[in-house]
Specification:
single chain; alpha+beta; Archaeosine Trna-guanine Transglycosylase, Chain: A, domain 4; 2 domains; five-stranded mixed beta barrel; two-stranded antiparallel ribbon; 5 helices; globular
């Protein structure tokens, strides 16, 4: 491990940008310590990715409420950790979730994507990587039941070696929750609140799916 170069990759509150390019995607969730693969094919977002790679490599993910102009107030920034240029002029990249933000203002650039003024003050604890104590077996079993009822084949055994915080980030991101559920998870005040929110969403969804299947 090259510890001397470690500081070049780490992000603290001093290195968080005051403005970031916005990538609004419906029903897509990014959480701190989660990894989100993205396929940039629209010209404006290819340009956004290229511009981002020239600067701090951070993109703000946020969900639209009803349209691309009407956005939720909270999103999450991610750092580009890898990317590939394809022969058909797309950019495939991975975003690693860093910190949640509040959207303060946004302006349209000449390239056709939005730059946003964002505020991180209330969410700097996202940077700490705090490991909450959770009942992993219970949570994974609830997800397993939910995925089975959705007829989804998800390899949950691959997550047995992950940390608690990665588990609390990865599963909500890949689960087919609706937009409002995903936003509720994002807006959980802390990781313990996130656990409660996830459990409630899983219980409600599993109950509703079970009721539908009986009729």
């Amino acid at each position: 491990m090259n510890d001397k170069a470690k500081h070049l990759f780490e992000i603290d509150h001093k290195s968080l940008p005051t403005s970031v390019p916005l990538f609004p995607l419906d029903n897509v969730l990014l959480l701190p310590f989660g990894n989100l693969p993205l396929n940039m094919f629209e010209e404006r977002y290819v340009k956004m990715a290229m511009d981002c790679l020239k600067s701090h490599r951070m993109i703000g993910m946020i969900q639209p409420r009803t349209s691309s102009d009407d956005l939720f107030q909270m999103g999450c920034i991610g750092k580009i950790t890898s990317y590939t240029e394809t022969k058909d002029f797309r950019i495939m990249l991975n975003l690693e979730g860093i910190c949640r933000f509040i959207l303060k203002d946004k302006v349209m650039t000449e390239a056709g994507y939005c730059m946003a003024e964002v505020e991180f003050t209330d969410y700097l604890d996202d940077l700490n990587g705090f490991e909450p104590k959770i009942d992993r077996n219970e949570l994974i079993q609830k997800y397993s039941n939910f995925f089975k009822m959705k007829n989804l084949d998800i390899d949950l055994e691959a997550l047995t070696e992950t940390s608690n915080i990665q588990l609390l980030s990865t599963l909500p991101m890949i689960a087919p929750f609706d937009k409002m559920d995903k936003q509720a998870i994002l807006e959980s005040s802390n990781l313990h609140d996130r656990v409660d929110t996830i459990n409630s969403i899983l219980d409600i969804n599993t109950f509703e799916i079970g009721n539908v299947s009986k009729h």
